[in-house]
């Protein structure tokens, strides 16, 4: 098992959940980091930014204020569909299996 790959995929899922909870406003990367730290203790802002870029390229989140010291992100409708289990989740995000 590739531990780094599993960590990235879990981080993506946690970011989506944090941004879903921050609706409709979105959240600064520091807020997302604080939410994720309860699960991944040693997460860095650089890791958060890398995964926000990944999620933005997949059209699941929108990242703004990239030219400022603190990025801001907001989940979009595709990301909400992933979190709410209304669409299949493609590989790359460690979404748990639906149990209900």
Low-confidence stretches: none
Beta-strand share of residues: 5-15%
The span between the termini is 28 Å
Q: Look at the structure and give the CATH class.
A: Mainly Alpha
Number of self-contained structural domains: 1
What can you tell me about this protein's structure?
It is a single chain. The chain has helices at residues 3-21, 29-36, 45-57, 77-83, and strands at residues 27-28, 61-64, 72-75. The protein is built from four helices and three strands, in the order αβααββα. It has one domain: Orthogonal Bundle (Arc Repressor Mutant, subunit A). Helix content is 47%, strand content 10%. The chain is mostly helical and 100 residues long. Helix 1 (3-21) packs across helix 2, helix 1 crosses helix 3 and helix 1 (3-21) packs across helix 4. The mean pLDDT is 94. Strands 1-3-2 form a three-stranded antiparallel beta sheet.
SSE diagram, text form:
Blueprint lengths: L2 H19 L5 E2 H8 L8 H13 L3 E4 L7 E4 L1 H7 L17
Antiparallel strand pairs: 1-3, 2-3
Throw out a few tags for this protein.
100 residues; mainly alpha; Arc Repressor Mutant, subunit A; three-stranded antiparallel sheet; 3 strands; 10% strand
Concise synopsis of the structure shown:
The chain has 100 residues and is mainly alpha-helical. Helix content is 47%, strand content 10%.
